[in-house]
Amino acid sequence: NAGVTQTPKFRVLKTGQSMTLLCAQDMNHEYMYWYRQDPGMGLRLIHYSVGEGTTAKGEVPDGYNVSRLKKQNFLLGLESAAPSQTSVYFCASSPLGTSGRTADTQYFGPGTRLTVL
Amino acid sequence: DQQVKQNSPSLSVQEGRISILNCDYTNSMFDYFLWYKKYPAEGPTFLISISSIKDKNEDGRFTVFLNKSAKHLSLHIVPSQPGDSAVYFCAASGRSGGSNYKLTFGKGTLLTVNP
What is the mean pLDDT of residues A83-112? Predict the structure, then answer.
């Protein structure tokens, strides 16, 4: 059981280049999230999805786009990378909350370290 | 406006002693709280949670206390071990507007447990 996986683990981009980060989960979770972590800033939500085919903006969505074409995958795209997007990106997923607060507990991937020069 | 605050960026304790990590929140709609632990170069892992209907939840060496009137929660680790050295994030969620599936995180506290 791999849980949440992220591809790639590291990436260096030049300003203006584009790329896509892939997140995959094998836990059949309904909800998926993309966060960025910057020094002294904690984890900030970029975009999230409450189900296949749906996406919504989080706290810091500008400069990013997402897609959830399959339930198990959540893609984060940078169309024109900027140095301000240098960060560590984490994907997470959580199950549908059928009882209690199970949907609140998110499971994280190992992260992608992105540097934009 | 930071809704979840961890005012101590770092904490250092001796092995075997108690570690107390603190978290304050401002949003009255938060009703579920979680602690995550993060090692370098890894993703955060869920540690323990508490619902607002409780004031204490215990899991082995880890206990979370919630003081709703003060909008304050704390994580106690007893006894502390060197392997507990990590960044600890406090997170909160609330059911307002159906957003119970979103978490708001604090900035984290780096715990160092010295042998």
Answer: 87
